[in-house]
Design goal:
single chain; 137 residues; alpha/beta; Rossmann fold; 3-stranded parallel sheet; 5 helices; 33% helix; globular
Length: 137
């Protein structure tokens, strides 16, 4: 949520609950207006049968999966999530689904438990983009 709000408003707010939101936002990229619809859903919003996650996957054209560099568990769930997304999206068509993995909280390097190299290697092995950022900065 902090990364989404930072993208939309250029402000940082540190604490969020486990709320799910859909945002719309216009951005000019290379002289073209792009309308983003962002479905921001924390991992904890998943239902037992995965129906909510399946609905989000079918709705989206691309995916940004964010983990905390200070939380190994948030990193460890990524391979399964990416496999789930690819099976659902690429099974329907021959097009590669755009997926980017983002390690957040780069400013908290003293609390880091997931190295940048681990993030890059995971993204490479799963054919995804990779960035490491700080929503706070």
């Amino acid at each position: 949520a902090a990364l989404t709000v930072r993208f939309l408003t250029r402000r940082f707010i540190g604490e969020y609950g486990d709320m799910e939101f859909i945002y719309s936002h216009n951005v000019t990229v290379d002289g073209r207006e792009i309308l983003f619809h962002i479905w921001d859903a924390p991992h904890s919003q998943q239902t037992e049968d995965g129906s909510s996650e399946e609905r989000r996957i079918q709705w989206a054209d691309s995916f940004v999966l964010v983990y905390s560099i200070c939380d190994r568990a948030s990193f460890n769930i990524l391979p399964l999530k990416i496999q789930f997304i690819k099976a659902a999206k690429e099974g329907q068509s021959q097009e590669k689904v755009p997926i980017v993995i983002v390690g957040n909280k780069r400013d908290l390097h003293h609390q880091r438990v997931v190295s940048s190299e681990e993030g890059r290697l995971l993204a490479l092995s799963l054919d995804c983009g990779f960035y490491e950022v700080s929503a706070a900065e």
